[in-house]
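JOB MANIFEST
job_type = single_chain_structure
chain_count = 1
residues = 288
[input]
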Amino acid sequence: MTAPAPGRTASPPLPTAARRVRAVRLRPRSLAALALVGAVGVAAFGWPFLAPPTAQVNAHAQDAPWLFAGLLMLLVAVVAATISESDLGPKAVAMLGVLAATGAALRPIGAGTAGIEPMFFLMVLSGRVLGPGFGFTLGSVTMFASALLTGGVGPWLPFQMLSMGWFTMGAGLLPGAARLRGRGELVLLAGYGFLAAFTYGTLMNLAGWPFLGAAASDISFDPHAAVPANLARFAAYCLATSLGWDLGRAVCTLLLTLALGPAVLRALRRATRRAAFETAATFDDPAT
């Protein structure tokens, strides 16, 4: 072992509890797939503001959400498959199944009640512990499973899957994953969950807003209006239709993260250590 240079002390190795264990390590192919679906997702959500009033896409304003929904469904499936091909072993698949089933079961609990959706706090904590690659897959699969469970299958589902994938992946990209613990980490996760829950609601508003049609009201999308006018319409639409729901989701996520976060984080980290995702599974030969 090489001795440290004079005047310097060698940094002690991280204890096992503080090391970042990733269920999925993103490879170049996975990163490229995520970048592709991200670019298409931005276009799918933001096309009302990216396309000028004279663009041909505005002539198909009612068809565009359907076209983007089909494309996003395909791309999300491709990204999930690409990540899975990286190194999503049997132990990670088991963890994915358990967490996705739990999230899908949590979602209907507060359905229809002021935006109380407890699944969001579980996605934040899972993404934090298991990393961004696993987080994107978990968010997408959980939303798909919950839609099958609740019958919420429609053109909005691919947008929900992509938004929840981003939501959970973002938690895995937060700083201090290896060293930040205790109250500081809890406040970071609660603050992220609060803001990201609002962002999720805004993205889903963008997915449904063009469906209204220009003749619906003064707050609906007008394909012939300029971008500033449509931005004002969209802001009014969010305030009038979803602010209360988004606030309920954000507050619920914040409170559940603060109240249950320590216990859930400990359980997830203990499970990942015992699963030893980064250790290849071996089987003894019974003949020896």
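[summary]
The two ends are 37 Å apart (CA to CA).
DSSP finds nine helices and no strands in the chain.
exit_status = 0
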